[in-house]
Amino acid sequence: MSKRYYLGLDQGTTGTTALLLDENWNMAAKGYKEHTQYYPESGWVEHDPIEIWNSILESIDMALKEVGAQASELVCIGLDNQGETCMIWDKNTGQPVYNAIVWQDRRTARYADQLAEKYGPMIREKTGLVIDSYFSGTKFKWILDHVEGAMERAKAGELLAGTLDSWMIWKLTGGKAHVTDYSTASRTMLLNIHTGQWDDEILEILGIPKQILPEICDSAQVYGYTDPDDFFGAKIPISGSVVDQQAALFGQACYTPGSVKTTYGTGCFMLMNTGDKPIYSENGLLTTVAWGFDKKLTFPLDGGVYITGAAVQWLRDKLQIIKTSAQTEEMAIAAGNTGGVYFVPAFAGLAAPHWDQYARGTIVGITGGTTKEQIVRATLESVAYQVYDNLEVMNRDSGIPIQVMRVDGGMVANNFLMQFQSDIMGIPVDVPVITETTALGAAYLAALGMGEFSSLDDLASKWKLSRRFEPKMSADQRESLLHDWHRAVERAKKWIEAEKEAEAVTV
């Protein structure tokens, strides 16, 4: 007798995870395949979309083989994506006209500054976003302006544009579906969150032809079916799609206003469900879309940290003071404290709540006695501090005190970090049984899109707690540590401001 599996695809910044869930929503298998990061110029970050497509197929194949399953045993597929990473491709051949430009990429920073000066309030009111090169809109414009013939071909209807969800669905369906969902569309800086449609005024300002953009759909519905020729000989419904952080919010069962999750990955991202009305932050957080069902939108407040897990990768790959990420927990504990060292990992600027594109990484407080263990501990602590900065302003903006935070992602395996996070925030931190929450959320949405769940309450009952970290730090110690952290942040801000006018990379 054949089994039934739900497939959640998490297409992340550094790789793709394929998560198989059995009929009882237990994790049955997982496949993971990394892809290459390309840095063609300073501040530029790119991915090869063809390599990503191959990594998707390889990760799925790995998961299926782990349990001896066939693709035909998949009930449905849900996927999540990097959010702002985007690309443009030939609608007939599927060939990208340029590499995917990654959310971390800063090549359009100068243009974003110019755009903000003229249109900042209007675009924020319509999209909920602060104008920044982080979002997809300026990236689309760059490709159209810099790839020879791209604008002409776009206007002639020969090209398609999209974030990586659109690319994945288009490839999975053999080019039959060009779609995105409300949550991912909200990360482009092109979606009017009040109408749920692409905004004609913003498109005109950026010079992006509307016809190249995907159809905006609900986050849970059948978008199409896999092409058997491209997908292991099976025709499977693709019935859930959402941006990665919103997938984690959904997988963490944060369905009520005030519930909060933080995902620890390459960057760190926290979302607070604020219900059916957008709340505009007065402290630099974003207002975005969590998901959309039956064309009705749920909104969260959104805080993001660019560099968290990536800072640990830097310790491993560039400084080579660790061999594996797992070593950091033992080293941090062995250090006892940082010896007054603070590390602000602003490699790509600072995101919420600071929004400083020109900040750069800074390590302060080093003495001749500073050890590598203290540097490692300062790196882990920097993750917790950056999360705190976002959650603190979420409290203020929402007027809803955060009682507990649900967490997921690779770094939650680090018990030192989770305990320090609880300490520095002064609230419990909950780790679920399944920490691959982005892929889980995608699978949940796919099942919802197939009518497998009757309600969100039905889904919420599936969430299971693995362990809870309670705060142990005194209020005085917490305040002292945060005071010095914020001093360090101020030293990192606007580091390259003097060079701004001379910056060579412009749109």
* Helix content estimate: 25-40%
How much β-strand is present in the residues?
A: 15-25%
Characterize the overall form. Answer: globular
How many strands in all?
24
In CATH, the homologous superfamily of the domain at 5-245 goes by the name ATPase, nucleotide binding domain
Q: pLDDT under 50 segments (min length 5)?
A: none
In the CATH scheme, what's the topology name of the domain at 5-245? Answer: Nucleotidyltransferase, domain 5
CATH class of the domain at 5-245: Alpha Beta
Q: Per CATH, which architecture of the domain at 5-245?
A: 2-Layer Sandwich
**What is the CA-CA span between the terminal residues?**
58 Å
Main β-sheet, in a few words? 8 strands, mixed
Structural class by helix and strand composition = alpha+beta
Average pLDDT: 93
**What would you call the quaternary organization?**
single chain
* Tally of helical runs: 15
Report Rg: 22 Å
Overview of the structural elements:
The protein has a domain at 5-245: Nucleotidyltransferase, domain 5 (2-Layer Sandwich), CATH 3.30.420. 35% of the residues lie in helices and 22% in strands. It has helices spanning 49-67, 109-127, 136-146, 150-155, 164-172, 182-185, 200-206, 244-251, 309-319, 327-335, 372-398, 415-425, 437-449, 456-460, 475-492, and strands at residues 5-11, 15-21, 27-34, 46-47, 74-81, 86-90, 100-101, 159-163, 179-181, 191-192, 197-198, 215-217, 220-225, 237-243, 260-264, 268-275, 286-287, 291-293, 296-305, 342-344, 362-364, 405-408, 429-432, 465-469. Strands 15, 16, 17, 18, 19, 22, 23 and 24 form an eight-stranded mixed beta sheet that branches. It has a six-stranded mixed beta sheet with strand order 3-2-1-5-14-13, sandwiched between helices. Strands 4-7 form a two-stranded antiparallel sheet. A hairpin with a 5-residue loop joins strand 2 (15-21) and strand 3 (27-34). Helix 8 (244-251) packs across helix 13 (437-449), helix 10 (327-335) crosses helix 11 (372-398) and helix 11 crosses helix 12 (415-425). The protein starts with a strand and ends in a 15-residue tail after the last helix. The mean pLDDT is 93.
